[in-house]
Amino acid sequence: MNIAAHAFVQLPMKTSPRVLFNLIAAGAVFAASSVLLGGQVPGATVGSNQFNEKTIKQWTLKGPLSESPKRLAESLPLADQQNRGGWAKFEPMWDEFNGPALDTNRWIVGMSWWKGRQPAWFNPTNVFVRDGQLHLAMRKETVPAELQKQGYHDYTSAALHTRARSSYGYYEVKARAMNSGGSSSFWFQQEDPKATPRWATEVDVFELCGKNNTHDQRYYMTLHVTQTPQEKRHWQVGSYWAAPWRFAENFHVYGFEWGRDELRWHVDGVLVHTVQNTHWHQPLFLIFDSETMPEWFGMPGDADLPSTFSVEYVRTWVGQKPQPGVPGR
Known about the structure:
Blueprint: H1 17-25, H2 29-36, E1 58-60, E2 87-89, E3 107-109, E4 120-122, E5 127-130, E6 133-140, H3 145-148, E7 155-166, E8 169-176, E9 183-189, E10 200-209, E11 218-227, E12 232-242, E13 252-258, E14 262-267, E15 270-276, E16 284-291, E17 307-319
Parallel strand pairs: 4-7
Antiparallel strand pairs: 1-15, 2-17, 3-7, 5-6, 6-7, 6-17, 7-16, 8-13, 8-17, 9-10, 9-16, 10-11, 11-12, 13-14, 14-15
């Protein structure tokens, strides 16, 4: 999902007194002390302060899901119906989409920092609520002339994000991918450098392709970093779970537990992926979007358009207190 066209160039760490002073003045005390002591940033490559993402521990389910838990309470995550996590509803990121229109007290249509992945432009009219669901449409249509000059043409897609930012908690959506090429995605990001100074991260809970011989049964999960106090460089860790069905066929429940120590992905209440949390601690916007991805998922066939990514609900909980024996809390 990362929107940067190129990876950032690594900034080498200098050891002169002036640079050390500047690092400390900028608040990068940890990085400076690492150099002074001859040590390394945790997980860094020996001889540098460049983080080695290969040291991050992760696990992905191989094979089909085990039996899904029974839903006993709609007020709790499907994966934790006993509420071992001590979850409490987080209202700013909870929406059942039961109203006659999108609740603009919770949502902002579009993304101020990005117009969409070319050639498709995020057309605000492609986001709408109908029949108790949120819909994000992709269409074959002409785009405005000023956008054509920027490389957008012939296709439009959709995006929206929450007004609130959040991090640690449990997030659950019930959704169905659009039945075409292109992506149906649920992710987290924010582009305001004042909100998290010297940090730029992204969490892709899922990127789904509804119709493609290679990708339409793969549940892609990816984490991105483009800046830390120690370096500017784009790197990522990720994996996919191979499902026995296409994600455009039916609605499924997708859960994501964002913990201080571990990130955990669930499908229909079953754990499919875990990643050690080394960098993803910043409050981010919750985002839904659809994108054309010519080089990855392929362009949608015109006969398949318009197609729609549909979300029945999004529910968010925060942990009331750390729970012994609950991973990632």
